[in-house]
Prior knowledge:
Blueprint: H1 2-11, H2 14-25, E1 28-29, H3 30-37, H4 41-53, E2 57-64, E3 67-75, E4 80-86, E5 89-95, H5 101-119, H6 123-141, H7 151-174, H8 178-192
Antiparallel strand pairs: 1-3, 2-3, 4-5
Helix pairs in contact: 3-4, 5-6, 6-7, 7-8
Amino acid sequence: MERTEQLLKILGNSTRREILQILSEKPHYISEMAKRLDITQPAILKHLAILESAGVVERFTEQSPLGAPRKYYKICDSANIEVAIRPKDFKVTDHLAIDCPAYLRLEEEMKRLTDEINNATGIAEKAVKAEELKAKAEALLSCLEYDGESWNCGNCRKIASLKKTVAEVIIQVSKGEIASGLSRLSSLINQLKP
């Protein structure tokens, strides 16, 4: 509930809601937002800092065709907050979820396979389930509806890539390639570090 309260507090500010509305269209740089909202750049920066510290937006640098690289901001998290206000009932819930149709079709199967891999006692059994998991992940990675600008697609692809790599490590280890499997696992862990 702590994250929900933080999001509600952040969204209580109309300027931050307007910034999020602009960023929902596409990534923007600071002066674009300032101009559209008719607010100073330092004020925009303060609001962006709050949104960034909450994990709602993130910044990245991209080369500008007009010269020096620019800092852009984009929405990096999806949060659905439901507020129900009724007589004798008040409830606030949040749901962070990927709603990519391709991901949703395969999510339960991937969870089941991951559980089966974790519960398998022999490495050969783990490898068979890992092959199935790898196939599901590859299906997501080859999605024809992939949109690089979409939060859903981006996170779907990250999860699928992670599942595929873990499956490949299990398969490598099952074939006796323990050193290369552990090296790959170590590389994966380092990529996941903030």
